[in-house]
Amino acid sequence: RSGGLLVLLGLQAAQAFYLPGVAPRAFKDGEAMNLKVQTLVSTETPLQFDYYQLPFCKPKKVEDLPENLGEALSGERGHTSKYKAQMKVNTYCKTLCRRKYTPAEMEEMQDFAILDYRVNMRLDGLPLAEMTTFVDEERPGETLETYTLGFPVGGKLEESEAAKDNPTGAADQYVLNNHLRFKILYHPFDSSDDNQFDASDPSGNFIIGFQVVPFSIQHRYTGVWDKEKESNNKLATCMYKDGQATGQFETHVPQSINAAEGGEVVYSYDVVWERTTVKWASRWDVYLQMTDDKIHWFSIINSVVIVVFLTGIVGLIMTRILRKDFARYNEEGLSAEEKAEANREMREETGWKLVYADVFRPPPFATLLSVYAGTGAQLFIMSFLTLVFAALGFLSPANRGSLLSASLFFFVLMGVPAGYVSARFCKLVKEPNHFKATLLTALLFPGVCFAIFFFINLVAWSRQSSTAVPFGTLIVLMLLWFGVSLPLIFFGAFLGFKRETISLPVQTASIPRQIPPQAWYMHPAVSALSGGLLAFGAVFVEMFFILSSIWQHRFYYVFGFLAIVFAILLVTCVEIAIVMCYLHLCAEDYRWWWRSMFTSGATAVYMFLYAAFHYFSRAHPSAKFDLLASSIYFGYMLIMSYGVFVLCGFVGFLSCFVFIRKIYASIKID
């Protein structure tokens, strides 16, 4: 029933569903509001920068907006700005400031324009977006609106215009977007909203949309520039009627970026209010509308075909095992021909029964395997809980940073099952040093991830990027690690070591059995890479959307689909691990412990390779030669792949352990 619920939630993702507690705010007519500025991001490079790292217009006092742990880890920084608006009051050609740039500052602006950096802003929790309307190919009579977050710092001047405005023929002339037209959609409170929320002010209005159209205008002004009241300066490039700006412009040229000489730039903006019929509860629909659901369904159908194929193989294996076992113990009920056929098949496929005395022999580095089993259980429960809460709407994009924060907190709080599972397997493989095993469970996986994360931060700090996590956030992470996660893991290990050792159906011989020569396709690397490819084939389409949303700054919201794909991935890992394990045992090779983990965990290898392909072919083509910027991307992808390896490896290992206990419990040993 829960799976069906997730499916329905995934299909209805485009319908607004909000985290309880995200209450609407009503603004009175004429009420002043500040437009918040955020980080500068680009699809050309993973480096993010704070808004005020570029020489934009600053208010007298810049206030930093509070941020949660998820926002801090993702590099989002919010500040107050000089952009002002009043509820339902249209303003045009309002001057923000006048800045004189040195050649070095102009060159910095040009660099950001070349890399297509975009400025992010927010109003009442809504992100600023450029909207594009196009005709739906499948429904010609309907139009669809798509969004691009933020507005570009600048852009390349069209070649024909460059030739016209710059007769010297200088190539690649860039312009600066120094005039912004904000379009703010609002919806007045009415009685029909009562069943959705309680409004503190029935006479107020709700912010429904926050859109922008950028312009590049080389402003002219007359007289002396008033530095004290810059918003009162009138611009000669704007049209006026009865002393009020009309929103139209006189003939003008774009504001070019002169990196050789510097220059003066006047920043200005418009605020246009427009009433809409969209209610507050649906204001995120334009960001979350689903236009590619057919691709998601194709991915799921493709994955289901793989799962059905593997399920058939596993079912065939189990059927043959059980049928032969019943036949062996009920030979008196068989005819002579049936006995001969049964004996022939028994001789062909009884290799797994010959290694019964070695199949539970502890592998090399058994303690390390137990540690990864505990961490895998921790990641599995964390992923499950995160997906459930996300599919139920508790981790909506409206609540910024909530997804990353929730994942981190769930991982920390799941220290008890991690310690418990690790302790149970450590006791099984007779690890004498319980403290060492528990400490490894608490330190190994988080330690590797933290080391990579710290290296990424060093790179970001060296480039003065806001991607770098503040020192205070690092302290918080350390406190969560050593103050919460580590004690919980030790508590879980305490519970696990108190339990009886897991019972095994057969005894292990004192002398290991010799393993016969194996075929080339039974080599551990070949079997692991083959198994990982099948599991990756079940999820690669969805991975494209996930990578695009992360590195191309889009909202990922189809958590219902993601939950289905996650379940398919787990089932695939279980079945491919069992199939490969059975084939190895039939070849009288009982070294299944680590192989089961690598067979399922190899999915992470293909994920990392696909992430590299995504980087060089689509996501950031102009940054491929920037070693430092690329190291940030590949560092985060390495952390993600490492986590996938441990999670999928745990699923494969646990399924093989249960499978082997089951089949060896079904035979009688003389």
Layout of SSEs?
Blueprint: H1 2-11, E1 32-34, E2 36-41, H2 69-74, E3 84-86, E4 91-101, H3 103-114, E5 118-123, E6 126-127, E7 129-135, E8 143-149, E9 151-152, E10 154-156, H4 159-165, E11 174-176, E12 179-188, E13 205-215, E14 238-241, E15 244-249, E16 263-275, H5 285-288, H6 293-329, H7 336-348, H8 351-354, H9 366-391, H10 402-413, H11 415-428, H12 434-462, H13 471-498, H14 524-537, H15 540-551, H16 559-586, H17 593-601, H18 603-619, H19 627-665
Parallel strand pairs: 12-16
Antiparallel strand pairs: 1-3, 2-5, 4-16, 5-6, 5-9, 7-8, 10-11, 12-13, 14-15
Q: What overall form do the CA principal axes indicate?
A: elongated
Low-confidence stretches: 1-21, 193-201, 619-624
SS-derived structural category: alpha+beta
- Termini separation (Å)? 45 Å
Number of helix segments? Answer: 19
Task: Note the main sheet.
Answer: 4 strands, antiparallel
Radius of gyration: 31 Å
Count the beta strands.
16
How much of the polypeptide forms β-strand, as a percent range? 5-15%
Q: Level of helix content? A: 40-55%
Chain-averaged pLDDT: 81
Could you please describe the fold and organization of this structure?
With 670 residues, the protein is an alpha+beta fold. Helices cover 48% and strands 14% of the residues. It is built from 19 helices and 16 strands. α14 (524-537) packs across α18 (603-619). The longest helix has 39 residues, at 627-665.
